[in-house]
């Protein structure tokens, strides 16, 4: 029997921080729930008291970009009338009435997809399989509010499932997928048949490679609610110095929270500066300045070679590649994520360390490169071609991408050829650290040049624009989120780089410098496309003639 | 018909009561060139894009043909970053997040008190003018308390504020004459506020003017002129707009049978009602002050650099490409996104206060007036087409119920 999932919690709040532009209206109207750190970095209690309900409703109504969702979640792809069902096929088929859709991975993408299936009129059975025992919860707060103790880890549940009828199999990992027999195998041996399946198993934290050292008391990774909860309790119990290994987004956010708790923090980063992997050297150097100003002992160009423990198996410190040592009673391993694809071994899908390959409509591709009909993929586990970026395959670990893809995948699961949508959203990302709201749109990692187009680096309020071969490919804002959509439109229209306009807040000179991003993507010189349309049913690309 | 002439018709007084059919015509050309060389933009997506376009300035001094010198430099509503951001931050420090997140929320009790007294004031009668009795005195009292301006001085600055806003945007009558009246009013208000600010600086209270006059920090402090222009902006913006939201609100509620009862019975409904009002009958119909700093191509039209741009907010909020069934007042819409407070970096500074004021005033009117009805529909309007609202709104009722929290 389908069960209705309802946490019975009074108010659940999620801010779609990819939309949020930092207007602060919510902070005015519900100051006990929302707080602003610095000019634009919004933090919030995901599960406030019932007494806050009216305040939260006022705040949600007031948000100028309608980024704030209470109890239920609106969808990312807005159309004129959001609750109207989108046409999926010309005939309302037997499948939509009595079919069975299985979703593997009960988190952001999986939960969102379930919601969209119902919105678009799927009346059949939906089974949601998750290996965690929790209801779907939101991960971004784990490295932000949760560690401060401001929000309990259990209070990060996502609101989107409350009204949706699903069969929910919690705490049951899937161990295999048989495409021919259309079955998912569970760890407990059960076989779940399906008509269509959505793979949304995301990623997990990359562990410290040396097992004995990883097992030391005081060594943590951060991906799940349980992990965040353990870290929070440890932080609350009292820590002398925290060692953070890796200064990507998660590592930097944890460093920020720990400094906020007035703990001594050492960050060890193999690259030349924090965030370099994602945003390149120019922004990395700015981020390094932020960390040092906040009192972080930042060591770049160095790696941790050994985690050291005492006889009781408690962490005492680490040895570094430059011969140095760090004394620390807590270490956070923030070395990125590993995609959860092992369960797909032998399935015949094109699955590997970068995820499961798909077409632009979220349909899985098999090892022969053929597109499957009934197997869909969404979220961090997906590897998809993006027309705007020369059809390069990309794998993202972005909240907004998981949501957008889940919606496209769910819609396409119900749609015939003529009604399918392409996943054309540009990647968007945000991070809150050291009182600064960092946002990005587009792909930075293919860029060859970057320029500060607006604002001031000294004040750490600016827009950096990235270019590749004379086209704008990405933009990053520090506390300037309100301008981001302008640059998104420039990217979608394949606008020339640098954006040499007369603009408000333009620095005296606009001088592009080398982006110095690790060249993880090497785009082929391909076609240039522009994206048109706002409504997902209308969004399409068209080819523009290459400039010689 | 020529788009420019539609735009002219919109500003004719005869169309004040219902400009909306003209907006629908205006939207047929999303970006239209006006006779004076400026451009008017009337569709939602395009307005939102321009509000977030850094090539669009709010500083009139950057026009190809700037207007003759104003008596004072512009307040932050008329400046660009980085100047704008610095001034807005300095003002926000005393009003909202991140430094004073609770100022507005803490005024809630006081707002209820003021509205209670005003409605008590019409209890002995069976007819009231919503404008003169409630919608005007309420926000004025609030902004005076917030800023620390003596309420007794209201008749003086009211006259100046009226002069200033009546002469915002295109209007009828002799342009030079309007400019002259505006200048005189600006100077009078500036002198008044300058003296008041000095008094607060010597003897600070816990009001905003004292905060503005005495604060010094990483962003520096306000110069004497900045202090005057900022205070004048807050005083004028804070009292010539909310009056229209409350009045338009009462008018709309009374035009939609059953709504008053629902607002009385469903406590949360007022929240979305006010949002829908800001979409459907907004106080600010146009932002007449933008300037293109560079050539901007939008909706297939290139606006040349130096051109003046008018953003038709009220038209955008009724764009059928953005909202389903836009000409219907429907507070039950699943989500309401409107241009009532503008958008981008100049998004209304006082929006949280204005919302709370309108929510409280309209809900209390709905709860306390028994069987309210309009005396004249449409009511007489004020001349201004940019800040549009009734001059008076006469309402009859059987009696007034006592205040109940
Ligand atoms: C600490 C942290 C902070 C973040 N901050 C930001 C941020 O600020 N901005 C941003 O844009 N993004 C952020 N992200 C990224 C964002 O949370 C992810 O992009 C998002 O969670 C992806 O959702 P998903 O559903 O694809 O995958 P996941 O959330 O990883 O969910 C996958 C689910 O599938 C389950 N699963 C895996 N294998 C199996 C199996 N075999 N059987 C059954 N279930 C299985 C997993 O346990 C998990 O519950 C952050 C992530 C973390 C961890
Ligand atoms: C219903 C009432 C109100 C409405 C509809 C309204 C509307 C607006 C709009 C549309 C703007 C944008 C102007 C632009 O972009 O050029 C604006 C700006 C502004 N408003 Fe309001 N307003 C209201 C009430 C208030 C109140 C109560 C205050 C003061 C407490 C206030 C203070 C301001 C200020 C200071 C600005 C300039 C912001 C900036 O340039 O950064 N407003 N308002
Ligand atoms: S944009 Fe919305 S969610 Fe973000 S700070 Fe503003 S009101 Fe809050």
From TrEMBL, chain B:
Biased composition (Pro residues): 65-74
Top-level division of the source organism's lineage: Bacteria
Cross-referenced Pfam families: p450 (PF00067)
UniProt KW Lyase keyword: no
InterPro entries named in the record: Cyt_P450, Cyt_P450_B, Cyt_P450_CS, Cyt_P450_sf
Spans annotated as Disordered: 58-78
Molecular-function GO terms, alphabetical: heme binding; iron ion binding; monooxygenase activity; oxidoreductase activity, acting on paired donors, with incorporation or reduction of molecular oxygen
Keywords: Heme, Iron, Metal-binding, Monooxygenase, Oxidoreductase
Record's protein name: Cytochrome P450
Species in which this protein is naturally found: Nonomuraea dietziae
